[in-house]
Amino acid sequence: MIIKSQSRRRFTGVAALAAVALGITACSSGTSSGTDAEGGSDDVSGDITLLTPIFEGTDGQQLLEDELLPQFYEDYPDVTVSVDYTTYGNLNEKLTTAAVSGAVPDVMMMGVGWIEGFADRGLLADQSELGNTEEKLLETYTPAIVDAGTWDGGVYGMPIMLDTRYGVANMELLEEAGYDAPPSSWDELVEISEALTVRADDGTLERAGFDLLSNDPRQVFETFLFSAGGDLFNEDVTEPTFNGPEGVSALQLMTDLINEHEVEDIGFSSPDAAVNPLLNGRAAMGLAHNNLWTQGLEADPEMLENLEPFVIQGEGEGMFFGGTFATRSATSQHPEAAQALLEFLASPGPALAANEQRGNVPALTELLDSDYVQSNRFVQFSMENLDVAKREGGPPSWLEVRGDFAPAIESALLGQAEPQAALDDLAALVDEAMARQ
Amino acid sequence: MTSTETPAGAGLAARKPAPVRRHKYSRAERKLRRTGWLMITPALLHLALWTAIPVVATFALGFTNYNVFSPPQWVGLQNYVEIVQDPVFRKATWNTIVYTFWTVPVSMAIALVIAVALNQGLRFQKWYRTAFFLPQVTATVAIAMVWLWIFNPQQGLLNAFLGLFGIPGQAWLADPDWALWSVILVGAWQGIGIKMLIYIAALQNIDGSLYEAASVDGASTVRKFFAITVPMLKPATFFVLVISIINAFQVFDQIYVLTNGGPANATTMMTYEVYRSAFEEFRMGMASAQSVVLFIFLLFMTLVGRRATREDH
C-alpha cells in the first residue's frame, strides 16, 4: 500500500505520544544518526518496501501510517515507503516467496531466532559495516538482546521490542490459601498449584492451579528448560542440548503438573483463548506473556492489582524472551533509504510507540524510565529482569525446526510419549536439520 | 516391431513413414484453423505457464534438495526414501485417508437425502437450497472461525448443547481422541452444499414417467427411491465421488485454522505437511516430493472413479 499520500495528513488522536516520541528521538544518543552522518537526508531517495508483522490491526496501521511515517518523511521527503502488513504466522511464507521471486522487501521486521537463518543465507545486510557495531549496540541494549541480532560476527538486526514469558500469580488467591509470595522453587510451584486448583464435584476443572496451556507449548517448555538451568543448544551451537537432564526434568514437570498433580486439564485453555484465564479468575497462577497487562487494562483493570509477576525458579531462572528486530535486505536497490527507515524505526521514539501499541517490552535500556514502562508493571518487571532472560534460536536452521517442538511437547503432555523419548526424537530432527545446513 | 526401430544416429527424416498425401485445406479452412488456434492460444499459454511448467518443475524438484536461497542439489530418490520413513508423513497420509473415508460418503449420503427432500416442491425450497449451499461459497477460514467457537470447551455451543442432556463436554480440538473427528465433522458439513446441488440437477433429469409407472405398479416411496432414484443417479454419484475425493485429499484451510495439525500431529494431513516442508522448513524439494506422492494418490483415486464410471456405461 502506497502511503506517501497519507504523509501529509494532520496528526490526530495520540498526538501527545507522537510529541513525546519525537522528543525522545531528538534527544537520543542512540542509533538513528547513521544515515544523516553519511550523506544527509536530502541525498536519500527511492521507493522502498517494509514488511512488518508488528503494527498489525487498525491501531497499528494508524500508528505507523498516520504518526510514525509522517515523521520519517519530514526528514526524508524523497523516500516513499510501501508497507506490507503480515503476521508472525505468515511471515515465513512472505519471506520465502519474496526470496524465490527476487523481490525481497527493503526493510523486514523479524523475530528472535529468525536472524541467524536469513543472515546465513545472505539475505540481510550486515549493520556493523554501517557503524552499528556490536560494541555500539551494547551501550544501549543488554548483551542477550544484542546477541539475538548477530550472526557469525556480524550485526544483522536492530532490536525494537521484546516479548517475555514468566510466571504470574494471583496474590489474592494465594493469600486466601495461606501463601504470601509466589513460588520460589519448582516444589513450591507444585505445592501452591495443587492447593489452588478447584474442581467441581463431578471433577470438572473450575480453576487451574497453574495455567500452562495459554501459551505456545514450545515457549512454555523453553521457560521451564531455562528454569532448570538448561539451554536449547550447546555453547557453540553445534548440537541440541534440550534433551539433556534439564530438558527432560522440565518436560517431566510440565507433564506431571497436568497428569499427576492435575492442576490443569488439556483443553482448559489454549494460546488462542479469547480471555487469558488469569484475567477472569479461571487460573490462580500461570505462565504469561508481558502483554497480559495491556489485555488486563481492557478486560479488568482491578484484577491487575492482584497479579504478581515472578521468575520461575528451579536450578536456574526461568524467563523467556522473544522480540522483533528491524533488518535490511542485502539486495536493496535503495540501501540508503532502507537504512534510514530501519534506523528510524529502531530509534527510541518510534520503538516506544510501537511497544506501547502492542504492550511489549522496549529493547532500549534507556526506555526503562519512560512513562509507558513505569506505568506497566509487567513490562517494568521484564526490563528489570532482562539479565536473566534467555532466548530461543541459535543455529541457522532454527526456523526449520521450531515447528517440530509443539507436537513433541504435546505428545508428552498427552501421555503418548515419555519426556525423554519425545525430546530425543525431537533432537534427532534438529540434528538432521542442522546437518543439512 | 523391427520396422519401427531406427538405427542409432539416424535423423528424424529416416523415421518418417512413406509420405502420405496430406489433405489440402481450402483457403477458408486454413483461415478457420488459424482462427481456432488463435482463440485457444490464451488458454494454451495459461495451461503451459500455470499448469504444465509448475507440474514438471514439481516433479523435477522432488529429486533435489532445494531450500529457496541456494540452487537445487540433485539428491535422487532421497526425498522419497525420507517420506516413506517419516512417521509424521505416514500419520498425515493415514489421517487424510480417514478424513476422506468419512467425509466423502457421509456428506454424499446427507447431500442425497437433502437433494431428494428439496426436489419435492417444498415451500421456501429456494431458500433452503441457498442455505445448504452457503457453506460452499463461504471462505473456509470464516467457517473455521465459527467452528472454533462451537468447539470451544468452555464457551462453545457444542458443549453447552450436550450439557442440556447431562453429557460431559469435551476438549474437541485439544483432545487427540476427538480432534480428527471434529475436523471430519466440519469437512462433511462444508461439503454437503456442492454435492446437493449436483444431485438436485441430476434428480431433475430423471424421467417422471418412471415414477408414474412405479406408482401404478404399487411401489412404495422407499422402493421407488432405491429402485429408480439411486440407479438413475449413478453417473452423478460417480462424478460427486471423484470430485469429493479430490477435494478431501486437498483439505488444508480448516486444518490450518482449526488445529495447525495438532494436538501432537493428530490432525495433520498430507497437504499440511507439504505446507510445513515448504514454508516452515524451507525444504521445497521435500515439499515437491510430498506433492508428487499426493498427486499419485489423487491420480489413483481418479482412475478408480473413471473406471467405475466407464463400467457403468
Please explain how this structure is put together.
Chain A has 437 residues and is of the alpha+beta class. Chain A contains 19 helices and 15 strands. Chain A has helices at residues 15-27, 34-39, 57-75, 88-101, 115-120, 134-138, 143-148, 171-176, 186-196, 217-227, 245-259, 292-299, 301-304, 335-346, 348-358, 371-375, 377-384, 398-413, 419-436; strands at residues 46-52, 79-85, 107-111, 150-151, 154-155, 158-170, 198-199, 205-207, 285-289, 307-310, 312-313, 317-318, 320-328, 361-362, 390-391. In chain A, the strands form 4 sheets. In chain A, strands 1, 2, 3, 6, 9, 10, 13, 14 and 15 form a 9-stranded mixed beta sheet that branches. In chain A, a hairpin with a 2-residue loop joins strand 4 and strand 5. Chain A is globular and about 70 Å long. Chain B is 71% helix and 1% strand. In chain B, a hairpin with a 7-residue loop joins strand 1 and strand 2 (73-74). The longest helix of chain B has 35 residues, at 27-61. Chain B starts with 11 loop residues before the first helix and ends with a helix. Chains A and B meet through helix 4 and helix 18 of A and helix 13 of B.
Shape of chain B: flat
Shape of chain A: globular
How many domain regions of chain A? 2
Main interface by residue count: A-B, 31 and 31 residues
Q: In the CATH hierarchy, what is the architecture of the largest domain in chain B at level 2?
A: Orthogonal Bundle
Number of helices of chain A: 19
Q: At the third CATH level, what is the topology name of the largest domain in chain A? A: D-Maltodextrin-Binding Protein, domain 2
What spatial order of strands do you see in the largest sheet of chain B? 1-2
Please give the oligomerization state of what you see.
Answer: heterodimer
Structural class of the helices, strands and pairings of chain A?
alpha+beta
> Unreliable stretches of chain A, pLDDT < 50, 5 or more residues?
1-39
